[in-house]
Design brief:
cell membrane; Ribose transport system ATP-binding protein; alpha/beta; transmembrane helix; Rossmann fold; 24 strands; 31 helices; 16% strand; 4 domains; 49% helix; 6-stranded mixed beta sheet
C-alpha cells in the first residue's frame, strides 16, 4: 500500500446557525486505502466531505488534495482529483443521463458534445452489461436505484485520485453492491483512495482498511479496521454501550382481532395478493426489488391504482386515491424521504403538522399555537435534534428528518401504518428508536406493514414475513422461521429463474414529456387554425394579410427568445415590454430624418448601453439582493415606463424613411427580420442542446445546487441570462420601429405578457431547466395568428383572450401532466 497522503483535512471547523457541525477535525486518507468514516446522523460526516469536496467552505482549518489547497470551490476539488457520490445524488433532473455525466466530470474527461451519448453508453456498460439506464433518459424518469447508479458511474468516470462514497449502498440491489465493491477494489489497486461513509458496520468491516469515528462534530480517533469488532465500533460511535437488540416480538397473536384484511388485491406489478395483520404484530414484505412488494404497499396507500377488497377493523375501506386511503385510516411513510417524505424548505413545525392538520383547527382556522405545541412535543418525544421547530427540515440530518416524518405520520392516528425502508440512511441509534416506535404502534392496535431491502431488519423487526416474487406472495414465514437466512433463501429460491419486469411510463406520456412534442403539437395547431380560417375566409391567406402578420411574428419571437433564456435558469423578466418602448423613445431622438451617421451611431451606442444596464440592474436585484424575479423586474418595469413617459409624454419623433425602408425589407412576402428570427431560433436551439452554455443554463434551472457542484457558475450564468434577455428585448424593438413609426412610450408594454405566453406555449417550464427556442418561435406565430384570425372568423376581439388563455391553460396542463407521468415513482 502506498503511504502518500492524497486527502488531508487539518483542524477544520464548520459552523451553521445554532450548530457547530465540525469542531477542529483532522482527517487523512492514504493512497491505495479504503478509509471508512463512521458516526451517527448529525455527527458531521457529510459536512466534512462537503468541505473536502469544496461544496462547503470551512470557517477554520484547511483541506488539501494531493498537496494542493481546496478553498471552497467544487471545480478546484474536482480538477485536483476528488469525486464524490452523495447520499442524495447531485444530478440535474431535467437533463439527460448523458448530459449529467458530461457536466459531472472534469473538462479533461469530457468527449466532444456530438459523441456524448456514445461515451455515456460506454460508461454505463462498464458498470453492467445489462444496466437498465438509457443515456437519453431524463434523470427525473429514473428510480432511486438507477439515479444512484448514474451518480456512481459519474464519479468513476472522472478517474478520481480520491473517491468519496456517502451511503453508497442504500438504494442498490445486492448484485449492484457487489459491483460497487469490485469497483472500489479497482480504484485502490491503481493507487487512488476511497473514503467510505456508511451506517452499515458490516460493510465497513468488509471493505475498509482504516476507519475514523466522528461524534457530535468531533473526531474520536482513527483505527485499523481489522482490529475493531462491531461492538467496539458501535461504542465509539454512540459514546458508550448501546442496546442493539430488536424490541421483543408479539407473542400468541392468533387470538388477537384482525386489524387489516386484504383479499385479491391487484395492481401495477402485483396481482391476487391476500394478507391480514392482527393486533400487536408487524408484517414484513420481502423479495428482490421490483417484484411487487413495494408496488403493493403504494397501492394500499392509494398512490397506485388497484382493485380488490380491503377491510380495516371489520369495515370496508377504500384506497382509490391517497386522500381516500388516508380517510380510511391508512398512513404511509415513504421510502424516498427527499422526494416524497419532506418539504425541505418548510419548517419542522409545518412538516410535522401537515399530516394531521385537523388537530390544529379552531373555528375552521389553523391554530399556530397548537401546531407549535404538538411539533415541540414530537421533537421531544422522538429526540429530534433541531435548533427549533421553525428550522427548515432540509437542514436536519437524515436520521432526524426520518424521525420527524415518522412522528408526523403517527400523529395522524393511523389504523394501518405502511412503512417503506424505515431506516434508510439512518444511524444505529436512530434505527433502534424507530424499531421501538413501530413495535409500540403495533401493540396499540395499529396494523404495521414494513418493506425493507435489509433482510436482517425484516428478520429482527417482523413477526411474519411475506415473500414476493413476480408480483405474487409465494411464501409466508412466521415464528422461528423468521430469520435472515431463511428469508434470504426463500427470496432467492422463489426468483431463481425470474425475468425482471420493467414497469415504465407509457410511450405516449414519455413522448409528450420530451422536447419535440411541444414543437410538433404547436405546428399542428398552427396549421389546423390556419386551414380552418382559410376555409371560412378566402382573404386570410392573401399576400396583403401575410405581409402584415409576419413582421409581428418576428418582433414577438425575438423578445420571446430573451424571455426563454431567462426562464431556462428559473428567472422571469416583466420589464421587457417597457424596455422595448424605451428603446423606441431613445431612438426617436437619433434616427430622425436628416440625422447624420455619427448621430445615428451614437443613438445605437446609447441604446446598447441602456439595454445592458437594465439587464445588469435586474440581475443585481435578483442575485446579490435576493429579490424575487417577479418583484425585481416589476420594479424595473415601472422605472423604465416612467423614464419613457418623462422623455416622451406623448408619441413623437418620427423615424426617418431610410430606417423604415430598411426595416421593411423582405424576400417575397417573408420579412428579413422574420428570416433572421428563424435563423436565430435554429442556432439557439442547437446551442441549447449541443453546447456547454446550453447545458449550463438548463442545468442551473433544473437544480441549482447540483449545477454548482458540477462546476457551473450560478452567479455568472444568471448574469448572462439577465443581460441576454435584455439584449433580445432591445433587438426586438428594432423591427417594432417599422410597425410603430415613432417614439411611443407605451408601444412595448403588451409584449411583456405575450412573450411569457409564447415561451410557455412553446414548452418551457416556469421553474427552469426546460424550454425550446423553436417552440418559442412557434408560440409567437400561434399567438400572432390568434390575434388576427378573430377578424377573419367574424367573432369579437374578446375571443383573442379566450383562445390565448385556453391555449396557455391547455399547454401548461398537458406539459405538466406529461412530465408528472414520466417521472419515476
Amino acid at each position: 500500500m502506498h503511504s502518500s497522503i492524497l486527502l488531508k483535512v487539518d483542524g477544520v471547523t464548520k459552523l451553521f446557525p445554532g450548530v457547530r457541525a465540525l469542531d477542529n477535525v483532522t482527517f487523512e486518507v492514504r493512497a491505495g486505502e479504503v478509509h471508512a468514516l463512521v458516526g451517527e446522523n448529525g455527527a458531521g460526516k457529510s459536512t466534512l466531505m462537503g468541505v473536502a469536496s469544496g461544496a462547503l467552505s470551512a470557517d477554520e482549518g484547511s483541506v488539501a488534495i494531493c498537496g494542493e489547497q481546496v478553498l471552497g470551490d467544487p471545480e478546484t476539488a474536482r480538477d485536483l482529483g476528488l469525486a464524490i457520490v452523495r447520499q442524495e445524488p447531485a444530478l440535474m433532473p431535467d437533463l439527460s443521463v448523458s448530459e449529467n455525466l458530461y457536466l459531472g466530470v472534469p473538462p479533461r474527461c469530457r468527449p466532444p458534445m456530438n459523441q456524448c451519448r456514445q461515451w455515456a453508453l460506454k460508461l454505463l456498460k462498464r458498470w453492467s452489461d445489462d444496466v437498465a439506464v438509457d443515456p437519453g433518459d431524463r434523470v427525473n424518469t429514473l428510480n432511486p436505484e438507477q439515479r444512484f447508479i448514474v451518480e456512481i458511474v459519474k464519479a468513476l468516470a472522472a478517474d478520481p485520485k480520491v473517491l468519496v462514497l456517502d451511503e453508497p449502498t442504500e438504494h442498490l440491489l445486492p448484485e449492484d453492491v457487489e459491483r460497487l465493491f469490485e469497483r472500489i477494489k479497482q480504484v485502490t489497486e491503481r493507487g487512488s483512495a476511497v473514503v467510505y461513509i456508511s451506517h452499515r458496520i458490516r460493510e465497513v468491516q468488509q471493505v475498509a482498511d482504516r476507519l475514523t469515528v466522528l461524534r457530535d462534530g468531533q473526531g474520536q480517533g482513527t483505527y485499523d479496521a481489522s482490529s475493531m469488532d462491531e461492538h467496539r465500533i458501535v461504542e465509539l460511535i454512540v459514546g458508550g454501550e448501546l442496546d442493539r437488540e430488536f424490541p421483543a416480538k408479539a407473542i400468541n397473536t392468533d387470538s388477537e382481532p384482525t386489524v387489516l384484511e386484504v383479499k385479491s388485491l391487484r395492481g401495477p406489478g402485483f396481482s391476487n395478493v391476500d394478507m391480514h395483520v392482527r393486533r400487536g404484530e408487524i408484517v414484513g414484505l420481502a423479495g428482490i426489488d421490483a417484484n411487487g412488494q413495494r408496488e403493493f404497499m403504494r397501492a394500499l396507500a392509494g398512490i397506485l391504482h388497484s382493485s380488490g377488497s380491503i377491510t380495516i377493523n371489520g369495515r370496508k375501506a377504500t384506497n382509490a386515491t391517497p386522500a381516500k386511503a388516508t380517510s380510511s385510516g391508512i398512513r404511509y411513510l415513504p421510502g424516498d424521504r427527499h422526494r416524497e417524505g419532506i418539504m425541505a424548505e418548510l419548517s419542522v413545525r409545518e412538516n410535522f403538522s401537515l399530516r394531521s392538520l385537523f388537530k390544529d383547527l379552531s373555528a375552521g382556522l389553523t391554530s399556530r399555537r397548537s401546531e407549535t405545541q404538538r411539533a415541540q412535543q414530537a421533537v421531544n418525544q422522538f429526540a429530534v435534534k433541531t435548533p427549533s421547530v421553525e428550522t427548515p427540515i432540509g437542514s436536519l440530518s437524515g436520521g432526524n428528518q426520518q424521525k420527524l416524518v415518522l412522528s408526523s405520520v403517527l400523529a395522524g392516528d393511523p389504523q394501518v401504518l405502511l412503512v417503506d425502508e424505515p431506516t434508510q440512511g439512518v444511524d444505529i441509534g436512530t434505527r433502534m428508536e424507530i424499531y421501538r416506535t413501530l413495535r409500540q404502534a403495533a401493540s396499540r392496535g395499529v396494523a404495521v406493514i414494513v418493506v425493507s431491502s435489509d433482510q436482517q431488519e425484516i428478520a429482527g423487526l417482523c413477526d411474519r414475513v411475506m415473500i414476493f416474487s413476480r408480483g405474487h406472495v409465494v411464501k409466508e414465514l412466521q415464528g422461528k422461521d423468521v430469520v435472515e437466512s431463511k428469508i434470504t433463501s426463500a427470496v432467492l429460491t422463489a426468483t431463481s429463474t425470474r425475468e425482471r419486469a420493467s414497469e415504465g411510463t407509457s410511450k405516449f406520456w414519455k413522448w409528450t414529456a420530451g422536447d419535440i412534442a411541444p414543437i410538433l403539437m404547436l405546428a399542428i395547431a398552427i396549421i389546423a387554425l390556419g386551414a380552418y380560417t382559410g376555409s371560412v375566409n378566402e382573404y386570410y391567406f392573401t399576400e396583403r394579410n401575410l405581409a402584415g402578420v409576419l413582421p409581428l411574428v418576428a418582433t414577438l419571437a425575438l423578445v420571446a427568445f430573451g424571455q426563454q433564456i431567462l426562464m431556462l435558469v428559473g428567472g422571469i423578466d416583466l420589464s421587457v415590454g417597457p424596455l422595448m418602448g424605451l428603446v423606441l423613445v431613445l431612438q426617436s431622438f437619433f434616427l430622425i430624418e436628416g440625422a447624420p451617421p455619427e448621430t445615428q451611431t451614437l443613438g445605437w451606442a446609447i441604446v446598447l448601453g441602456v439595454v445592458v444596464c437594465v439587464g445588469l440592474l435586474n440581475w443585481f436585484l435578483v442575485d446579490p439582493l435576493k429579490m424575487h424575479p417577479m418583484v425585481a423586474t416589476l420594479v424595473t418595469f415601472m422605472a423604465l415606463q416612467a423614464v419613457s413617459l418623462q422623455l416622451r409624454p406623448i408619441p413623437g419623433g418620427l423615424f426617418s424613411d431610410g430606417v423604415l425602408e430598411s426595416l421593411d425589407s423582405s424576400v417575397g412576402i417573408v420579412p428579413l427580420t422574420l428570416a433572421a428570427a428563424v435563423i436565430l431560433a435554429l442556432l439557439l436551439e442547437f446551442g441549447l442542446f449541443r453546447s456547454r452554455w446550453g447545458l449550463s443554463f438548463r442545468g442551473l434551472g433544473s437544480r441549482p445546487e447540483a449545477a454548482r457542484v458540477a462546476g457551473i457558475k450560478p452567479r455568472l450564468t444568471r448574469l448572462s441570462a439577465y443581460v441576454g434577455c435584455s439584449l433580445f428585448a432591445g433587438l426586438a424593438a428594432i423591427p417594432m420601429m417599422a410597425q410603430v413609426g415613432s417614439g411611443d412610450p407605451n408601444s412595448g408594454t403588451s409584449y411583456t405578457l405575450t412573450s411569457i405566453a409564447a415561451v410557455v406555449i412553446g414548452g418551457a417550464s416556469l421553474f427552469g431547466g426546460r424550454g425550446s427556442f423553436v417552440g418559442a418561435l412557434l408560440g409567437a406565430l400561434l399567438i400572432t395568428q390568434v390575434n388576427v384570425v378573430t377578424s377573419f372568423l367574424g367573432v369579437t376581439d374578446a375571443w383573442q383572450s379566450y383562445l390565448l388563455g385556453g391555449m396557455i391553460l391547455a399547454s401548461v396542463a398537458l406539459y405538466s401532466k406529461s412530465r408528472q407521468m414520466a417521472v419515476a415513482k
